[in-house]
Amino acid sequence: MDLQGIAALVTGGGSGLGAATAEALAAAGARVAVMDRNAEAARAVAARIGGTACAGDVTREEDVAAALDAAGALGPFRLVVSCAGIGTAKRLVGRDGPHPLEGFTRVIAVNLTGTFNVMRLAAARMAAVEPGEEGERGLVLNTASVAAYEGQVGQVAYSASKGGIVAMTLPAARELARFGIRVNTIAPGLIETPLMGELPEEAREALGKLPLFPRRLGRPSEFAELVLAVARNRLLNGETIRLDGALRLSPQ
């Protein structure tokens, strides 16, 4: 896909992976709508890249539709990158009893249902644009996690949500192929995000030693580089790509 002049939507674009992705897409010539629940953060990133800010929640159809309207006003809408998500750490059975059901459903709602909500609405918009080279109309790129494969103790809800995103990838790609829309997923490992920055320095140093090579935390810019590579390589479709330095998570 030629990124020059296309319109793109990045959810969770106010910080971390989403902000880095929005910046990289804009630098590559795309016109980017930045969606985030934090309106101020979305505006800051959009101002920095010359894009459009959209405050909203990915679980709300009207919020996603408004963000897609904003993206569509920028040019032919061909790319959506879903980076919005939340984390949680709660044991299935802990000192306080069983895992709260509302905690599980909230993580599923944001991470899995929110990703599905964005994908279905974005794909419907992409299906209406003129096809490009080889009939390609667009790309849906979702964000999972290595926890989809090696969820640790306390990650049952998070792993379920990210595993669902991985499981959606191939059937969605098969279904949307008739429109010339590709679907891929990136499963990052340990990335230097604002959430990671809240940990004590010694904890961050210990985590940085877990990947085999390079032996450090990943950088949001490296996630963004992979987004660009996936967008530009038309043969990548229906695939989940681990971005983790050969990391394999231990049980704890």
TrEMBL record:
Q: PROSITE patterns in the record, alphabetically?
A: ADH_SHORT
What's in the keyword line of the UniProt record? Oxidoreductase
* Molecular function in Gene Ontology: oxidoreductase activity
The record's InterPro entries line, in alphabetical order, gives: NAD(P)-bd_dom_sf, Sc_DH/Rdtase_CS, SDR_fam
The answer to whether UniProt assigns keyword Oxidoreductase to this entry is yes
* Similarity comment: family membership: Belongs to the short-chain dehydrogenases/reductases (SDR) family.
Quote the protein name from its UniProt record. SDR family NAD(P)-dependent oxidoreductase
**Which taxonomic lineage does the organism of this UniProt entry have?**
Bacteria, Pseudomonadati, Pseudomonadota, Alphaproteobacteria, Acetobacterales
